[in-house]
Protein 1
Amino acid sequence: MPVKKYVHFADLNARQRARQLLDEGSFHELLGPFDRLMSPWLTQQDIVSQSDDGVVIAQGCIDGKPTVIAAIEGGFQGGSLGEVAGAKIAGALELALEDNLAGIPTAAVLILETGGVRLQEANLGLAAIAEIQSAIVALREHQPVIGIITGPVGCFGGMSIAAGLCSYLLMTREGRLGLNGPQVIEQEAGIEEYNAQDKPFIWGISGGLQRYQTGFVDACTGEDLDAVREAVITVRQQGIPEHHRSDRWEHFLALLHTLDPAETMDAAVAKAMLTRTSAEDDTATGAQS
């Protein structure tokens, strides 16, 4: 019996991730590198641009079901999004919506390895991310929008808000999810507040397992490609959630109000606070019903 080959999902580039998630032979890339669709702003600042602007859009099937994938290349500009990269993702989601309105049940998978908006294209990037968020909300009424966060960049900035809008959110242990990245927090608040070099602390607060245990994501998968693909298929089969995570904004706002910024936060304290509050909310909901 042949030995099953282990493929580490985070080690693949964006194009490989999209190709490997789709059913064999179904991969079809839209606006690929030979279309030379790249940011016009980077070269003006003597920054080497990339012919697909760091985003791979692919169309195909997962488990025989039509799917569009938008995969961000974390190795290009830290996975940041500008005008072109953001427009590609928003456009792909809008095409998937058009498919559904035409009777083709196309779901979307977003592979999110990104630091958020590209600083060189700040306003244009922010506008593009807003379009992505709007497109996610529109599409998720018809078919699931599934986000995947893996290493080494993780998902931060405006795209972390987009991740929160997804129907389902998957993370590997290597993934990280937060509104602001560790380096940004350290820069603005000081190393005493947040040491960006303290890896156990960083992953303990924003890593995949912690985010899963505290209810911010739906599954913490293994690092193997097959484990990630199986998780995508599983949540896709569950269909549209009865309640999206973003509909529970009052719950998450209440969590913010329980925080005391004067107290030292670590992984154990964060987990205890979030899981306790979630349990109390569930109990209260049960009592009201």
Protein 2
Amino acid sequence: MKENSYSETMKASVMKRIKAKESFVLDLYVDMLVSEIQLNTRREKLMNRIDKAIDDRDKLLFLNLTKELNDLNKQFGT
């Protein structure tokens, strides 16, 4: 069995840490992307329901849905 030198061991350790950081950043990016897709989908569904409430002249439903949309926008800072 070959023993690694100190410098080889340190290089391997550094590379392992770099790969772990890259993996973390990629996971974070994927999570952000999924959240953005979910937010846009939810917003689009709300907008469609709001449009339907307007077409149906359902004022109460319209007010409830617009409040929900405003809350969603506040929650995500949009």
Protein 3
Amino acid sequence: MSTETAPTADRVAAPPPAGWEEARSRVYAVGLAAALPAVARPLADIDGFTLAEPLTTRTDLPAFPTSSVDGWAVRGAGPWRVVGRVLAGSTPAPLTEADTTVEIATGAMVPEGATAVLRVEESTTADGLVRGTPRETPEWRQPGEEAYADEELLPAGTPVDPAVIGLAASCGHDTLRVRRAPRAALLVFGDELLTAGPPAAGRVRDALGPAVPAWLRRYGCQVRQSDVVGPVADTLPAHVAALRSALASADLVCTTGGTMNGPVDHLHPTLEALGADYVVNTVAVRPGFPMLLARLADPDGRIRFVAGLPGNPQSAIVALVSLVAPLLAGLQGRSMPVLPQATLAEAVPGRGDHTHLALVRLDRAAGTATPVRHVGSAMLRGLAGADGFAVIRPGTRGEPGDRVPIVPLPLLPGERAS
């Protein structure tokens, strides 16, 4: 009997790769379990953070009846005798007599007893009296028109942007409980990489060192220039030292390259040396198969993560959208990213028993997705013209007219998709 394929006594079979959807769910769950602590911060300091509690109103909005126009707050049918003026920021006396009025500014509190607000441009003044016909629609905002006291306006897990900050201020908040942005670092592996100039003499330019931090910032991370290290020497001691140093201050360390088991692939031995546990070790997706996510726990309970991105540039971005994006959503206490759908404008091949993430350009008005060209795992030209990845599930291919999930490329903080 041939023994060529028989396992040796000390060989441990590698676990099968995780399914792509399973991997996303798994890393989101571990991120949520390790969600960053909630802290109270002033409104001016929370742009890019995440609500740790629902945003509620402290009063009715508006808190009092507020004039929508410049004009006259009147009582009775008129004409009206002027008895005062109300400006924004003041509390007016009630209108107690019939056919009296006070001049009122936009945003000012409507006095008790007023029956209407007459627009200034639709009024006349003569002989000390104001005349005109108020519109049938009230010209003031009623208390609670926008929200009632203690009403929940936004749920916990909402990303904080300038619009959220303004809303919180209008509700009367000075501080909010939020989760800070995760701190991330990047280690670039590979002695063959150049950090300046064109590729030459068997060496290639590092495209991930400059690009990955920008992607991470779009996912809400804090990444300083000093947090980007590399190329790290292709030795195990250098890898262990670099990763240990990065983990001292980062919640997440991304690495590029070294995720397989070649002669200079030291990531797996490094993780073993540091006592890391795998959350995901390879994913059944193309491109990007040799991606991984590992978890480290300190004695004090602090959890940190290492995301191993493949060295091929497009594969690395696939790993970012597949593993890093859901992990960061969990760490920030946000919801699992929901994938929008689009209709394929052209056919997209399948990848057998692997999920295929195919770069596409979106026509949002038409709701269609068109595959782009130049999409090899080592290429970035197609990525530069794409809006996201179409998800072609295992055992299928994408046909024109099929509705498929889309993994969007991340936007700048505060941006919203059109």
